[in-house]
Amino acid sequence: MVDVAHTRKELAAARNALTGTVAVVMTMGALHAGHETLLRAARERADHVIVTIFVNPLQFGPNEDFDRYPRTLDSDLEVCRRAGADLVFAPPVAEVYPGGQPSVRLDPGPLGADLEGLSRPGFFHGVLTVVLKLLQLTRPGLAFFGEKDYQQLILVRRMVRDLDVPTEIVGVPTVREPDGLALSSRNRYLSADERRAALSLSAALRAGAAAAERGEDGGAVLTAAHLALDASAVRLDYLVLTDVDLEPGPVAGPARLLIAAWVGATRLIDNAAIDLAPRS
Known about the structure:
Blueprint: E1 3-5, H1 8-16, E2 22-27, H2 33-45, E3 48-53, H3 73-83, E4 87-89, H4 93-96, H5 116-119, H6 123-138, E5 142-146, H7 150-162, E6 168-172, H8 192-213, H9 218-228, E7 235-243, E8 254-263, E9 266-275
Parallel strand pairs: 1-4, 2-3, 2-5, 3-4, 5-6
Antiparallel strand pairs: 7-8, 8-9
Helix pairs in contact: 2-3, 6-7, 8-9
């Protein structure tokens, strides 16, 4: 069985009993094989693994899916048990924000207003605020985040560095279905036809990566990705090529190709690592 804490007091008591290296995996529940991969990666490096399951209202806009976001605690606990987690923190909203929604929130800086932040204003203020709170409550030496949410991973790393948080942030590669679709809790919203349409995102990334492998430049990589995207099946939000730190400017060497698009009423994101380094 996995120990479950629902309050700060319960979490503190359970956390104090853990010795050695402690890792945390932060989730919003609706766990799938991608989360299980994160848990197993954490298990390999830590003596104990804490999982947080919390649907954070601060990172949902007024027209987003907070109320319908899946809550599946019983099945989530089974995933945690199977993957070797020691402790699950599954608090109600009032336990994380006892004074109501906080008036003080973390500013993610300029990157927080780009890409996901441009499409979802205030999103990263909510993400970084809850991540910092959960890091302080769980006190881990390691925290594992999936690379599918690549911009989030970069911003969490910057926050930890800039605010001197004593936690190592570990990125874990995206887990995909056999047909290439990146695993996401929101995939369950897709109809059969929409799921087929969603494959256009990973197809675009593969086409861009293939262009890079042929030694083509960044412009050609983006062109190849756009040509592979089925514009009749999805509504593109952005498709961009950046360096690995998401910094503005010319891109060369290791890079990241990122995409976001609407498939029906569901917004999906994905990304791929590519290399624009010259080939001999």
